[in-house]
Amino acid sequence: MADARTEMLARVRAALADRPVTPDVPRDYDRGRELGDRPALLAERIADYRATVSRIGAPRLAAAIGERLAERGAQVVAAPADLPAQWRVPGVDWRLDDPPLTVDELDACDGVVTGCAVAIAETGTIVLDTGAAQGRRALTLVPDYHLCVVREDQVAGTVPEALAGLDPVRPLTFVSGPSATSDIELDRVEGVHGPRTLDVLLVSG
Q: What pTM was estimated for this model as a whole?
């Protein structure tokens, strides 16, 4: 006698027997659409999300990090253990995530500084995959302020183009502006499930 699971699945298969075969879904996405100045478009879209973006040259990166942290009053700052040494500007109490910081320790930090895996010009989205200079997901979700460094050579034009260069088995976090949600009355609330404030340094060269 068949068990309940086998009987249930048999009924589902019987009910679907006369349904048409599911067609193949085309995957020939347009990955290379011309979007003009991708970094400029990315900066525009990021600003649309109420984030702050600054375009700078590589020689000014360390100074710009120090300026942004000072403007935000961020004195105790979390960072992935492999954050480049030149990004760790003086005058800041850096809390490297090695060994991993506890949730309470992360919450006590004024912010976090990271890099990214890729950024998408068309949507103004930054993608983190826990790779180089990014750290684990909690590092960028718990602190109230996130300063993210994006190199211009990391800017993809479209979502399909960006996804083609990402490893799908890595934990991916898509960041489109500061964390925000709204209730049924459409009252916007920021910082519910991620940073309330996002600054982006878009670096050329």
A: 0.81
